[in-house]
Structure formats: C-alpha cells, structure tokens
Amino acid sequence: MKKNVAFYTLGCKLNFSETSTIARTFKDEGFNRVDFSEKADIYVINTCSVTENADKRFKTIVKQAQKINPDAFVAAVGCYAQLKPQELADVNGVDLVLGATEKFKITDYINDLSKNDYGEVHSCEIEDADFYVGSYSIGDRTRAFLKVQDGCDYKCTYCTIPLARGISRSDTMDNVLKNAREISEKNIKEIVLTGVNIGDYGKGEFGNKKHEHTFLDLVTELDKVEGIERLRISSIEPNLLKNETIDLVSKSRAFVPHFHVPLQSGSNTILKKMKRRYMRELYVDRVNKIKEVMPHACIGVDVIVGFPGETDECFLETYNFLADLDISYLHVFTYSERDNTEAANMEGVVPKNVRSKRSKMLRGLSVKKRRAFYENQLGSYRTVLFESENKEGYIHGFTENYVKVKTPWNPELVNTLHKVELTKIDEDGLVRFNFEEAPL
Ligand code: SF4
Question: Which residue range or ranges hold the Radical SAM core domain (predicted)?
Fold first, then answer.
C-alpha cells in the first residue's frame, strides 16, 4: 500500500515552491500526498527563520502532527533547520533534520519510517550550498510561484538568510523558460517570480560568480512565453530595479504594473547601519520613475521598525517619508534580534513596547495608503483574475495592479479573467465592480 506524506510550509513563497519540489520527489518514490490535517506516515515541516517565535511555532506543528498520528515519522527542513539543527532535533517527536544541501535528497534519508529514539541531524556548512535546485509550485489553481534565484551575497546586518540559504545563484534561463511553459500548459493564468534576491538574477547561472544574463534579460524572455497571461515580479531590491526593467514592464504583454520594493527604513542613518545598498533618495527616484511611466502601478513597501539606533527622530523620518511617498501599501516588520547577525550586538536597543507602538503606527498608515490607492482606481477599467476559494459567500480576485475585489460566489468565475469597472469600496475595504461584459 502507498505511504502517505503531508507537508507544512512556514515562511515565504520560495519555501512554498521548494515544498512542491520536495513533494514531487516523494511522488516519484511512490508516496501519496495528503493534507497536513490528515493521517500520514511522514510529516515534513519546511521551516523559516524569519517567522516570529519560530521555535514555538515549530513545536506546535510537531505536536499537531503527533496528535493525528503518534507513530508518524517527523522531518524538518528549511532555513531554521539549517540555522539551528540541534534545537529542532531536540524537540520531542522529531526524527530527522536536514540542512540546506540535504533537503532535496530527503527520500534518501528515509528507510522504513520507523521512529528514531532521537532527532537525527544531517546538516552542512552553508558554504557547501552552492548548487541550484529549480522549483515551482501551483498555489491555488490560479497562480504559480516560479523560483528563479536562491541565496544572497548582500550583508544586511539584521538578516540571517545568507546564513540559511548560502550565496546568490540562479536557475539557467533555459530552465526558467521551460518551467514557465510547463506551468502555462497547466492552465495557470499567473506566474509570480520568486527568489531571495531576484534582481541579482543571472549570477551563478553556470556555477560561476559572473552574470551570464541579467534580470532584464529574464523579464524580456519570459514576456515572450505564450500562454502565460500574467507575470508578476514579487520583490526586488530598489538598487537593482533598473529604469530599463520599469520601462519594459510598462510596455509589456504579460508583466503587470505591480512592484514590491523593500525600503526597510526612511532614515539614511538607519539604512547605513543596516548596510542596505541605497539611500532614501534612490528610493524616491525609483517610485517616481515607476509612477511616471505607469501612474496606476501598485507599489508595496517592506519596512522594519525598532532597528537598533532607531530614535524617535529616525522613526518619524521614516513615517513622514512614507506618508509623502506615492506608494500603495506597507508590509511592516518589527525588528527582532537574530543570533549571529551584526545587528544583534549593536547599541541603541529599542524597547519592545516602543517597537510595537511604531509597528502599529505604520500599520495604520498602510491602511490609509491602500484606501487612497483604491479610491484613486475607482471608475477605471481593470482586468481581474478570480481566485478559487469561496470566502463566506464571496469570490475574491486581484486586478493587474493588485486591487483586491469581491463579488458574490460564482464557481464559473474561478481562474478566469474579466475586464471590470471598479465602482466602490465596501466596509471591509474590498472593491466592488461592474462587469464590462456579461460574466461568461
Ligand atoms: S538583500 Fe539583505 S535582507 Fe535581503 S536576503 Fe540579502 S542580506 Fe537579507
């Protein structure tokens, strides 16, 4: 009889796409994939080091698995497994922990699935994680996450990702295009490009440190893949977002006018401490360039509050900077100390209560920004891709420029694109519309 395997993914889109690759390995070995809430013979948890209280979350998930099947084999992979293998191995019920180089070979480490007396660790020095494994995942039947790059050569002082994922390296252009074609054959309408630092695309494509191709080459070629209706650049560092890429997106067949650009701080003092590779002036310039060629573009911003040395003045600088900028929403992260990072030893620690107060202020600003952006879009005609879930009697969808819309549930709309006129904002902040043509 086939053995059952279940997966739990924490963290980013990259982790989701890698879980899919690991799941395919199991399928090739004859396993049957079931939901995490179902009884499985093996539970695989793909961990994240960025997640707040990562250890607590992990323990809860292990307990959840054990409750469903106390005899199941439990394996942990992913960033947290690379950074703190022993910590995870010591959690009651864990049988196997695999580091960055071993995670894709997981089935080699599994024999008869009988439980171990202790958590077995197979880890590596992160310097050894210099090879590339391509991945993509199908999210919710409407969009796919396509991994194009992994690792990062930057040295941002708060970040553990280079320690968990290794140096910057890329998939080959041929392989990315092949994956994109494969996805399009599955009737998926949208591809989201993922990676750790995707603007660095091309580095290490053929195992060396050179850029064989650039991110601009990648976007240019992907835009030509037939059958993909939409392509979305997920997150790109501001210093790597070139004018040529912005221009290309503005004239593109499939790339949508939506950018997510990490800022992290609006104070140059803090940006320097973070060792980011730009100053706030460059960020303004990027936003202005996008808006100049695509006034309707949606721009999302990552920002960290409570970084060491962030005084009230520095925070206000960030707040006012963002308030004045023509952006559409914020993702606010509260700074938390990470082992083995430079920032963890910096002076000027911001008290936890101040961090959460600042986070609340910026989240409030984000609500206002999103509302203003949506209001600005009312009366315009946009194309919506409808999602697959019935959410309390409604179906949701996103326009090309990331306005979230809703309408009463109609299963025939799932995974279809429709031109609509955005008409009003509901109490829950989502946008109503009229179909331009009769729906279906
Ligand atoms: S760019 Fe900075 S924050 Fe982003 S992964 Fe690289 S080191 Fe981390």
Answer: 138-372
**What span, in angstroms and rounded, lies between the C-alpha atoms of 43 and 75?**
6
Same-domain check for residues 21 and 104: yes
Domain of residue 120 covers: 4-128
| CA pair distance 224, 254, nearest whole angstrom | 8
Q: How far does the centroid of ligand 1 lie from the alpha carbon of residue 402, in Å?
A: 25
Q: Which of 149, 159, 168, 236 to mutate to test the pocket of ligand 1 (most atoms within 8 A of CB)?
A: 159
Per residue in 78-125, pLDDT (tens digit) is: 999 998 999 999 999 999 999 888 899 999 988 777 788 788 888 777
Asked if residue 90 belongs to a domain, the reply is yes
pTM (whole model) above 0.70: yes
Residues 243 and 209 both lie in one domain: yes
157, 96, 169, 89: which is closest to 126 by C-alpha? 169
In the numeric block, which tokens belong to residue 376?
Answer: 């600005």
Q: Distance, CA 241 to ligand 1 centroid (Å)?
A: 15
Does the pLDDT of residue 191 top 90, yes or no? yes
Domain boundary among 86, 106, 128: 128
Neighbouring-strand partners of residue 424: 432
Report the separation in Å between the CA atom of 156 and the middle of ligand 1, taken as the mean of its atom positions: 6
Ligand 1 atom at minimal distance to the Cα of residue 153: 6
Listed in sequence order, the residues at least 6 apart from 345 whose beta carbon sits closer than 8 Å to its beta carbon are: none
Instruction: Let me know whether 349 and 406 are in one domain.
Output: no
Domain membership flag for residue 375: no
State whether 320 and 242 are in the same domain: no
Residues with Cβ within 6 A of ligand 1? 152, 154, 156, 159, 161-162, 196-197, 237
In a domain, residue 195? The reply is: yes
